[in-house]
Amino acid sequence: MDLSEFEADNSVSCRLASAVPDVCRSEDCCLGIDEAGRGPVLGPMVYGICFCPVSKKDDLKDFKVADSKTLTEDERETLFLKLDEAKDFVGWALQILSPNTISTSMLRRAKYNLNALSHDAAIGLVQYALDSGVQLKEVFVDTVGPAEKYQEKLSQRFPGVEVTVRPKADSLFPIVSAASICAKVARDHAVKSWKFRENLGDVDTDYGSGYPNDPKTKSWLLKYLDPVFGYPQFVRFSWSTAQTLLESKSMTVHWDDDKEDGEKAASRQKCASVLSYFGRSKPQGTAREPHRYFSERKLQTLDML
Amino acid sequence: MSRSLWLMIARVKLLFFLLPERLLRFCLAFGFILLRMCSNASVITVQLGSLGQADKPQIHLLPCEIEHDGPAEVSRYFTPTVKDHKNEMSVSFRGRGLKGAEINCPQGYTGLVLKEDNKAASDQEDRTVRISSVFHRFTYWNLETKPNSDDGVVMAMTWPALAEAVSVC
């Protein structure tokens, strides 16, 4: 699988897609959606779709695709190659959500949670298939959250398409298994060959599974923790594992939009006055307030260092 | 003097001065600047001899406060991840998206970062600071929104010109 387009800038989200088979533009098609790498604290999350004509469902079954989690890495690679070779009737597309996209979305001022992010990625991919002329009739989706609500959301968004959202859909519907294989292969490749944009020299790639409870992942997170910057962009800062480690092992950072009770914030701001840099205490009994022209511009008259 | 020497206080603990170059040139002839602050009796000497050794780093002003005074691995973690596409600068810090812009110091002014190597023991003692860095521009970062003319730091750059005009009247 060629990920060079994503690797050119792995701080953003990227779409990769196969060519759309001609037959998918003329015949009624089914489409499967699945994700890979939702849980790990490291690396991207990948959304995958796979589609083929409804009449070719049995051909797909003959590939012996199965839930990607029950397959070994080699088996997934082989199956992906088979799917990619069946380009006369199978198409696929992926949305790679970089860890930086995940962090900055989830930690945004107006929070954009992982479920919304996932749903939007899935919707974007289905829309991509429709825009490419795929005659969509059936969509099968694997889900982690409540299936009914998600099914309703997708059915409303895509009228005329029969949507089935089901937990464990990746082991029930071959087209979803196929999508899960595409997504998992991309995620594995992306993690394995991650190009750190930071100047970290030779990075220890023994990350473990990337799941927070994996001791290898945990020791990697400790090894690459920087007291000021935290982590390289490979890490999802929004994961509680990462945040807990940062809270205990790195310098505290305060943002304007932090939720903090007023008194605490006020006393902290007073303590952290830039004047404290030079270690002199502020004289008591301050003179009149400066004009707001100055406060708006964060300007202060200098009367001591 | 209080008009021409001013201090910008940002939420970050970056302390820097913008000093009129005319004053700087004048003082260079003597080798130091004496500051007599009205609040206490001590004299603060800025060693201008240190100007030659001062480095000229890229200065980044972040929209947050870091509880840290000291060195940071800027060139390992931060600078390589800064993106500058078509005048749109972006980066992330601690997982939060930032957008940035280059800001020039007002014309005729030089930015200085001062450092006090030996802290004075009492309020009455004279103090000596050296110039650790010199800069003429810096990168100003905002949380998620592009820096614009409503931002305090951007607006602050207009003060020297206004101060000049006011003093003429």
UniProtKB/TrEMBL annotation, chain A:
Function recorded in the entry: Endonuclease that specifically degrades the RNA of RNA-DNA hybrids.
Co-factor note (free text): Manganese or magnesium. Binds 1 divalent metal ion per monomer in the absence of substrate. May bind a second metal ion after substrate binding.
GO molecular function, one term: metal ion binding
PANTHER family named in the record: RIBONUCLEASE H2 SUBUNIT A
CDD domains xrefs: RNase_HII_eukaryota_like (cd07181)
Protein name (Swiss-Prot/TrEMBL): Ribonuclease
GO cellular component, one term: ribonuclease H2 complex
Domain RNase H type-2: 28-251
Catalyzed reaction equations: Endonucleolytic cleavage to 5'-phosphomonoester
Organism: Scleropages formosus (Asian bonytongue)
Biological process (GO), any one: mismatch repair
Protein family (similarity comment): Belongs to the RNase HII family. Eukaryotic subfamily.
Residues annotated to bind a divalent metal cation: 34-35, 142
TrEMBL record, chain B:
InterPro entries: RNase_H2_subunit_C (IPR052863), RNase_H2_suC (IPR013924)
Pfam family, one: RNase_H2_suC
GO biological processes: RNA catabolic process
Top-level taxon in the UniProt lineage: Eukaryota
Gene Ontology cellular-component terms listed: ribonuclease H2 complex
Annotated signal peptide: none
Name assigned to this protein: Ribonuclease H2, subunit C
Protein's organism: Scleropages formosus (Asian bonytongue)
